[in-house]
Each structure stands twice: as C-alpha cells, then as structure tokens.
Amino acid sequence: MFRKDFVWGVASSAYQVEGRDKNDGAGTCIWDTFTEEGRTFEHHNAYVSADDMHRYKEDYALMRELGVKAYRFSVSWARLMPEGTGRVNEKAVALYRDMILEMKKNGIEPYMTLYHWELPQALEDKGGWLNEEIIDWFAEYAKVVAENFTDICDKIFTLNEPQCFIGLGYYRGIHAPGKKVTPEESFRIAHNALRAHGKAVITLRKYAKQPIQIGYAPTSGVAYPASNSPEDIEAAKKVYFGFYNDVDNWTWNVSWYSDPVILGHYPKEGLEKYKEYLPEITKEDMELIHQPIDFYGQNIYNGYPVRAGADGEPEFVDRPAGFPKTAAEWPVTPECLYWAGKFLYERYQLPIYITENGMSCHDNVEADGSVHDANRIQFLDEYLGNLQKAADEGVEIAGYFLWTFLDNFEWHEGYSERFGIIYVDYATQQRYVKDSAFWYKKVMESNGAVLSC
Ligand code: GCO
C-alpha cells in the first residue's frame, strides 16, 4: 500500500494544453517561434491545442468527478511576463489565479511548475539559457510568481526536465529553440540552469506569502539490473548515476543535475570525464545551487537493463525481440519505477514524487463515445505496482502524477501522440473519458489497493 497521505495526481504543462487567445496579452514563446518555423510534426502548433485556458472549469470539474486530488500544472513565463522581464501581464495573473482557485474549489491541490519550457522569445533573443543573466531573469520571474500566487499555491517545482530543454532544445536541436550548441556551451547552459534554480528557490522563499514547499523535476532513463543479483544491482546503480554516455549524449545524465542541487557538488566522475568542456565553477556557484528543497520530483517513462560483466564492469543487455513498446516507440519497462525509487531515495534521502509517468497510445473513440485503452491500463498497473513495491520496502514515495490528463501538444511530435486519460477531439474540443481514467479513479480511491501487482 502507499502511505495514507500519498498524493495522487495528473500532470500537464501550460504550453501543451492552454492554447492562446488574441486578447490574452501573452508574449511570444520560443515554441511559437519553433512551430512558425515549421519544425513540428505536420507543422502542428499549440495556438488552440486543448483550449484549456477557456475550458479549465470544465476540465477541473471532470478531474473532480474522476477523483483527482492534485494537479501538476505550469505557469507560462511568456504569458505572465511577455518580454520575460519587467512588465507583468495582468490578464495572466487573473487567469492563473482563477485556475488555481478553481482547482481548489474542486478539491484539487495545485502543484505549480515554474519552468516547463515556456521561455519568452525576447529572452532567447538575448541568448536564452546560454546567457548567464538568465539567473536573474528567472529570479525576477520567480518573484512575480511568489508575489501573485503563493497566497493560494504553496507547492512549486522550479525546473521541468533540464535534460530535455538543454539536450533537445540546445544540443540536439529538435526542441525549441532548435539550437545546436557546442559541448562547452551545453555545460554552460546546464550550469546557468542550476544556478537559476538555486536563485529561484531563494527568491520564492523570500517573497512567498506563506511557507511554501519547493521541489525540482528532472527526468531520467533508468538503468535497472537485468537480474536481482547483487552484482547486477551494483552495475545498474553505477550506470544510473555514472557517466557512461559520450559527450554527445551527456545531457541525459542523472547525477549531474541532481547532486549539485541536493548534495552540493557536481559528481567527481563527471568533473573528471568532461573537464575539458566545463565552465568556471566557483564555490559561490555551488552554494547558490545547493539550496534546501522539500521534495524531489522525477519524470520517469522507461529504462534499460544492465548486468555486471565478467570483469565486474557494467554491460548493457539487449532487449528480447518483440519487447513491448508504446505508440511513441518507447520501451515498456515497469521495473524502472521500482529501481529508480530505490536508487534515488538511497542517494538523495528526500521524499520522491513521480512527477510524470504515462504512455502514448493509438487511442480512438468508439461510436458510443468510449475509448478502450487497455494497454495504457496495463502499463499504469505494472508501473504503479513496481512503485508500490518500492514504497513497501521503505522508499519514501510521496506521490504520483500521471502524464497526462488531456491529450495535448506533444512538442515536436505535435498531436501525433496521445498521452491523455481523456481523449480530446481537437476539431470539436469534445472530451471523451478513456477507460484508463475510470480505472485510475479506482486506483486513487483505493490508494493503490486494486493494483494487480
Ligand atoms: C517530458 C515533458 C512532457 C512530455 C511528456 C511526454 O517529459 O518530455 O515533461 O511535457 O509531454 O513527457 O513526452
């Protein structure tokens, strides 16, 4: 069983669900630019998406009907501060305050993410995350959020998935802003992002209208042991926190983004392996990054099996032919939630929220309006069963946010992927409740007791 106060929720992000409105006063976001450049699947854009900025009352009422107790949403920096600094869009303040109050009216605890990739284009034009002034720009944004929303929202995540917005946005270039920086620049960006996180923590606590809890939501692909042998477990842990990626793939690392925040130092192995690419790192930098946080988020979708080789060194194990995959061609690896919980809690000793987990399916609506997504139910049942197993063994799992509630704009994949437990007909904006939503209601009501494993 999960602990009595376990937080059951769903997650989304502003840009992926809100849509726009010609009078909303929002500034241009780097994802607007990226879609205008035609760099998304079939040139899809998020100007309407699930139109949640106009339909959130209906959507939160549906969440209540389905027993959702917490909602991890994000505030769009570009909507709130159109130029990124200075002017505040009062329409955005009113919108987000009404959203938060509407969540609470429906018995839903708001968990806000400050940055889920909605960078104002005006700041990207000044270098974006490559410009270390972003540390102050992000702190100014955090101050505006603290002053306007912390009287009604007291749980805030600072950054969502630095691995992605750095790795995909600036290094591989398949996400906004679609840059391809040098290895040296990628490490500078990461150092800027971590310092921005630290300064935001300080700022949020300084200007909050009440005591708040602050978290952080990186992601990881999970190295898990191919067997339960102590050797394979040690080998998997070594890979999970180690540096087995070459520099072209370094941004997917786990410990590089979390050790500084939680332990106060970059991992020695990484400092050694990547020393030729690193920016200047001062003691003051590390003190800024290492601000106390209240909980640790982790977005987890899948992992890869590792065993101990004859020499004790880790070996990557090929998956058998026909290994189960999602519609997004991601491997289905439920054991990764068990092992990630064990490994992360052992290393960081903080309550863990699984801040994202879910799957893309080729969903369709039947004539009677039903959506039969049995494979999503099986996926969630197996992943949650593994998470519960970690909790039963003493890992402090504080909550789980299913990705995602409404089908939405899946970044460069546009609307080709459906991750929601609610089907959205984008032409009519009609919502259809998928079987997985009714199943998840039972899981939440039973606090996990109905899970089959
Ligand atoms: C991420 C982002 C989400 C994605 C989800 C499905 O983890 O990439 O946080 O915005 O939409 O994970 O890819």
How is this structure best described in words?
This protein starts with 6 loop residues before the first strand and ends in an 8-residue tail after the last helix. The protein is an alpha/beta fold. Strand 8 (303-308) and strand 9 (314-316) form a beta hairpin. The protein has helices at residues 14-17, 30-36, 52-65, 77-80, 90-105, 121-124, 134-149, 162-172, 183-207, 230-241, 255-263, 268-273, 283-289, 335-348, 374-392, 435-445, and strands at residues 7-11, 70-74, 109-115, 155-160, 213-217, 222-225, 296-299, 303-308, 314-316, 352-357, 397-403, 422-425, 430-433. Bound molecules: D-gluconic acid (GCO). D-gluconic acid binds at residues 13, 16, 160-161, 164, 219, 299, 356, 403, 410, 419. Residues 13, 16, 160-161, 164, 219, 299, 356, 403, 410, 419 line the site of D-gluconic acid. Keywords: Carbohydrate metabolism, Cellulose degradation, Glycosidase, Hydrolase, Polysaccharide degradation. It is an enzyme of class 3 (hydrolase). The active site is at 356 (nucleophile).
Chain-wise SSE layout:
Blueprint: E1 7-11, H1 14-17, H2 30-36, H3 52-65, E2 70-74, H4 77-80, H5 90-105, E3 109-115, H6 121-124, H7 134-149, E4 155-160, H8 162-172, H9 183-207, E5 213-217, E6 222-225, H10 230-241, H11 255-263, H12 268-273, H13 283-289, E7 296-299, E8 303-308, E9 314-316, H14 335-348, E10 352-357, H15 374-392, E11 397-403, E12 422-425, E13 430-433, H16 435-445
Parallel strand pairs: 1-2, 1-11, 2-3, 3-4, 4-5, 6-8, 7-10, 10-11
Antiparallel strand pairs: 8-9, 12-13
Helix pairs in contact: 3-5, 7-9, 8-9, 9-13, 14-15
D-gluconic acid (GCO) binds at residues 13, 16, 160-161, 164, 219, 299, 356, 403, 410, 419.
